[in-house]
Amino acid sequence: MPSISFYQEELISHLKEKISVKEPQNLYEPISYIMNLGGKRLRPALTLLATDLLNGDYKQALPAALAVEVFHNFSLVHDDILDDAPLRRGQQTVHEKWDINTGILSGDAMLIMAYELLSVYNNPEFKVLIEIFNDTSLKVCEGQQYDIDFETREDVTIDEYLKMISYKTAVLIAAALKMGAVIAGSGDEQQKALFNYGMNLGIAFQLQDDFLDAFGDASLFGKQIGGDIIENKKTYLYLKAKELGSKAEKKELADLYSLDPRDPSVKIRVVKEIFHSSGAVDKTREAIGLFTTSAFKELEHLSDYPGAEETLRDFGEELMSRED
Q: What CATH number is given to the structural domain containing 320?
């Protein structure tokens, strides 16, 4: 079975064939810009991999894989506007390079392009793919809204946070895998197993990202350590510390998360100490392990497909061992 990088390269080749600048240039140039800005392209690669693993022709999954990637980048363009983010993958965001109106309109066009890519499939395959895509797209939007709502709420629960990251991050990974299974013509059991594998691995991935933001190696992580703490984000670490900490720790944490100091280094250090002393660090590591184990458990349903379980387990282990 080819490596994940093989499918990434196949996706890039298909992208270059299908995504081009045409008139009106100010609509399509930003689309080409964001689509060629890089990124790991793991989600569409997983669509191709899933099709291949379940004895389908991965080339038949290229339109669906590209639809996943176009949708993902559409959501990034609009998220960057919502967050007023200046950079994406180290380069100017679309709304900074052009303007907000262009970002909104080009993003809208990308969503339509994603549906257009899926239109090459015939029924009943098309109907199933569209149902997955519609449900996923709506959940991503819901996840983004939950994330926005949490910024001004002090009563966010662990379950609510897990739901938010399930929708905002994990569901598109899960859908990408399930779409590959559909195109391969696999049964409901395999489709459900791949979806659940993707959901659990996606949650574990986001929890790992939260953890690395606070405790990762700055030289490897690729962004400022403690960024979530500086922005007062209510991550799993924060919510667990708030749940498990002593009365004094909870008060100090609340006080620190109400501050926006010019030099945040002391705030980051003290918050990290509370994460440790409260037991939040251990509980976060435990949750990462539990969701990863749950993901791998789903692979038992792929026993009729030689190599599928091993390949996806290897992928998951490599993903979760990352430090950047």
A: 1.10.600.10
